[in-house]
Amino acid sequence: MGIRLEDGLWLAASGRSGSHISDPYDCDVYLADTGDGLVLVDTGVGPAGDAPLSCLRACGFSPADVALILLTHGHADHAGNACHLREATGAPVKAHPACARAVSRGDTAAIALDAALAAGLYPPGYRFRPCPVEPLADGQTFRLGRTEWLAVATPGHCDGHMAYLMRKEGRGYLFAGDSLFLGGRVLLQNIPDCSIPAYAKTADRLLALDFDALLPAHFGVDLSEGKSHIEKAAALFHALAVPPQAGR
Ligand SMILES: [Zn+2]
């Protein structure tokens, strides 16, 4: 299934905090065609979700066409399906070094899954499958087909969070994960590695990037005026305020 956002860009999975086309616990999973292989950004909750594979098949691709799987962070709604998609596609999975370490080890404390399960945020009995993940450094760039990518460390929502800037044919696309959302909203959680000062620095960092489309992992996308949302959040942080909470 999936939802086509524009040429070569699809919403491949999306749960109840988005478009509700797949497992209700899935984050928004993006599929980008680079012209020389596909990139998946985030994977959904898993542990065996096939929505991203159904999407790419419906678009005329095969799982072997996936060249790279990127994780924005280790929370289970983003990384819980990584192992399944890695096995199904043969593609490497990459993330911030701290996220890579936690997901590779299945460190459920570090990815706040222990706390999330205790809070009832996932179904009872949900199990996280560890997945080998390769580290990407802050500021690392790479090229795939007609796309150029930049990995940007974006703590605040949690440690080990990375956003990914993709440039393709003169346009910029920010895959923002759980950093910043439409309306300049943020996603604060009562977990040890959620930090308002780090969030404020992240907003400034994202504000300095050149992009058109803001593609967060929940609560909708803006394909043309993406930067306006970052400006709102940064202005509030500069006034020592905290932007409103996403999804409320
Ligand atoms: Zn998260």
Radius of gyration: 16 Å
Number of strand segments: 12
As laid out across the biggest beta sheet, the strand order is: 1-2-3-4-5-6-7
Number of domains: 1
Low-confidence stretches: none
The end-to-end distance, rounded to whole angstroms, is 28 Å
Order of SSEs, N→C? EEEEHEHHEHHEEEEEHEH
Q: Categorize the overall geometry.
A: globular
Overall CATH class:
Alpha Beta
Q: What features would you describe in this structure?
A:
By secondary structure, the chain is α/β, with parallel strands linked by helices. It has a single domain (about 5-240), classed as Ribonuclease Z/Hydroxyacylglutathione hydrolase-like (Metallo-beta-lactamase, Chain A, 4-Layer Sandwich). The protein is built from seven helices and twelve strands. The strands form two sheets. It has a seven-stranded mixed sheet with strand order 1-2-3-4-5-6-7, with helices on one face. Helix 6 packs across helix 7. The protein is globular, with a radius of gyration of 16 Å. It starts with a strand and ends in a 10-residue tail after the last helix. About 50% of the residues are buried. The site of zinc ion has 4 residues, from loops.
